[in-house]
Specification:
167 residues, alpha/beta, 6-stranded mixed beta sheet, 6 strands
Length: 167
Amino acid sequence: MRILAIDPAIRNTGFAIVEGDHKSQAPLAFDVISVPRTVSQSGALAAIRTGLSNLIEKWEPDEVAVEGIIYVQSHRTAISMGAARAAALIAAADHGLNVYEYAPRKIKQAVVGKGSADKQQVAFMVRALLGLSETPAHDAADALAIALAHLFASDPLRKTALPRTQI
C-alpha cells in the first residue's frame, strides 16, 4: 500500500510518501511544502492544495493519512491550521482518495511509544525505524510518523493499535 501522509500547516506543510504495510515500510519521498510569509494566506492555501495535488498525480497513493486537529491556545492559530488542513483534504478529495485521521498523541505513541514525545524524539525514531541516513526536518519527520502510524494501525496484533478513523 502506498500512503501520502500530511502534516498540515499554513507555511510549512510536511508530506511523506511511504510504501508498505505494518511489517515493512519504505519511504519514497518526504519534504516540506514551504510557502513564504510574503504570500497571502489564500495564496498559501492554493499552494498547499496544488503541491499536494501534484504529489498525488506523481506518486499515485492508495490512501491519505493526516494529523488530526491539535489543541492550541490561539484562535487565530487554530483557524490557520484548520484552513491548511482543509486545503490538504480538498486535494485528496479531488483525486477520490480515502483520508484517515490520527490524533497527534496517538501518532507519537505508535512511533515513539510515548504520547508526550517531543519533535526531536519523533524525528529520531522515524530515522531509526526507516533506516534513514539523516534526520529529516521536523515537519517532514512528522509526516513520516503519520504514515508509519497509519501503516501500524493495520496490524491486529499491535499493542498500541490505533483506530483508523476515516474522514
